[in-house]
């Protein structure tokens, strides 16, 4: 969606969403902004981690927070919240990224209107109809968002949330890495060296102000991308350099609530390697002021697909239900081997290896080896 198609409240919401990506305590403010942008009375976000890395978020907009602080809200939590179980169970059956109304979960309007929890929410919070959306499709965590609307609304604004959904999904995905860093080191941006993927932070003008060890290594090779004297990223071709520059500017604008780009992805050809360097640019807001500045810039992820030994392939394979053969093929694929080499190393027919690659990529929700690498890094951040 173009910038012109978004109003000022939507831009404010986008900026608040990226605040929360780094600082989960800001999700309440972000949900207030989301509710205002779509005309909702209240908004709730649930994220539940399913592995050993802590990643849980239970955030409410102010209308819900005010409610649960009152005696009737406490009664709701202790006695009535169990009625919501079918609603949340329905999230697992919904397509990711598609907003759906409360009646789409297989519960009739008559049932919702007479259910004790719905009656309490209408009486005490002033909402009747609800929308839901599942933001990410990953076995590493479950997430879902609901928005409640005032009684008397003739039609739910299903499309109003659509411009914000990619940003909500991206913020939660980014928050996974930041939550892991915070849990282990009580900091996020200050300990990027603990992530073995290349990470760099850039100002809106493109100046890179922070690089972790892996990013410094990649840039020092001067193969695919490097830093100039002004510490701005330059690729081998002018066209790619321009894409990087524009991607950083767009990400910074989004982090500041003035744009709507969720990310820029670039595959950069390298002189000395057959595999391209993978570069992702996403919005970043240093809301906790860890860098002693009110930074609204870009987080740049640099991935060398030839250095995958630190990736948690075993855990990823387990989460995605890979067979033992698919797990072995996954490791060989990540190491850069093609179908012929995989078949030869495993003593199978090429058609067997090809089918195994297709199945594991389908299970992982990836289309290529490069997308698989990105997927593993995003869901299981390689901490050292």
What do the pLDDT scores average to? 89
The description of the largest β-sheet is: 5 strands, antiparallel
Instruction: Classify the secondary structure makeup into a structural class.
Output: alpha+beta
CATH uppermost class of the largest domain: Alpha Beta
Tally of alpha and pi helices: 15
Strand segment tally: 12
Low-pLDDT segments: none
What overall form do the CA principal axes indicate?
globular
Helix content: 40-55%
When the domains are counted, the total is: 3
In what range is the share of β-strand residues? Answer: 15-25%
Rg over alpha carbons: 22 Å
Task: Give the full name of the CATH homologous superfamily of the largest domain.
Answer: Transcription factor LuxR-like, autoinducer-binding domain
CATH architecture of the largest domain: 2-Layer Sandwich
CATH topology name of the largest domain, in short, is Beta-Lactamase
Widest sheet: strand order? 2-1-5-4-3
């Amino acid at each position: 969606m173009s910038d012109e198609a978004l109003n000022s409240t939507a831009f404010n919401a986008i900026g608040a969403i990226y605040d929360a990506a780094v600082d989960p305590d800001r999700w309440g403010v972000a949900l207030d902004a989301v509710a205002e942008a779509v005309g909702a009375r209240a908004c709730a976000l649930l994220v539940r981690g399913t592995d050993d890395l802590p990643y849980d978020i239970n955030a409410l907009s102010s209308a819900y927070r005010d409610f649960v602080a009152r005696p009737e809200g406490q009664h709701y939590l202790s006695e009535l919240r169990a009625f919501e179980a079918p609603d949340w169970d329905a999230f697992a059956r919904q397509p990711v990224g598609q907003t759906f109304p409360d009646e789409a979960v297989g519960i009739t309007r008559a049932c919702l209107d007479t259910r004790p929890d719905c009656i309490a929410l209408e009486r005490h919070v002033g909402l009747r109809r609800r929308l839901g959306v599942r933001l990410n499709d990953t076995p590493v965590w479950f997430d879902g968002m609901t928005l409640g609307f005032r009684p008397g609304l003739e039609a739910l604004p299903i499309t109003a949330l659509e411009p914000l959904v990619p940003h909500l999904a991206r913020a939660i995905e980014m928050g996974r890495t930041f939550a892991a860093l915070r849990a282990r080191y009580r900091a996020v941006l200050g300990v990027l060296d603990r992530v073995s993927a290349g990470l760099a932070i850039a100002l809106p003008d493109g100046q890179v102000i922070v690089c972790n060890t892996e990013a410094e290594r990649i840039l020092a090779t001067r193969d695919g991308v490097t830093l100039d004297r002004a510490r701005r990223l330059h690729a081998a071709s002018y066209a790619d350099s321009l894409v990087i520059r524009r991607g950083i500017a767009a990400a910074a604008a989004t982090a500041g609530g003035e744009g709507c780009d969720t990310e820029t992805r670039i595959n950069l050809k390298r002189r000395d390697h057959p595999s391209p360097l993978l570069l992702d640019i996403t919005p970043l807001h240093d809301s906790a002021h860890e860098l002693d500045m009110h930074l609204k810039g870009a987080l740049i992820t640099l991935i060398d697909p030839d250095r995958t030994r630190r990736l948690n392939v075993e855990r990823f394979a387990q989460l995605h239900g890979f067979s033992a053969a698919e797990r072995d093929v996954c490791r060989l694929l990540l190491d850069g081997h093609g179908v012929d080499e995989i078949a030869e190393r495993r003593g199978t027919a090429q058609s067997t290896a090809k089918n195994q690659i297709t199945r594991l990529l389908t299970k992982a929700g990836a289309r290529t080896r490069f997308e698989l690498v990105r997927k593993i890094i995003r869901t299981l951040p390689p901490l050292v």
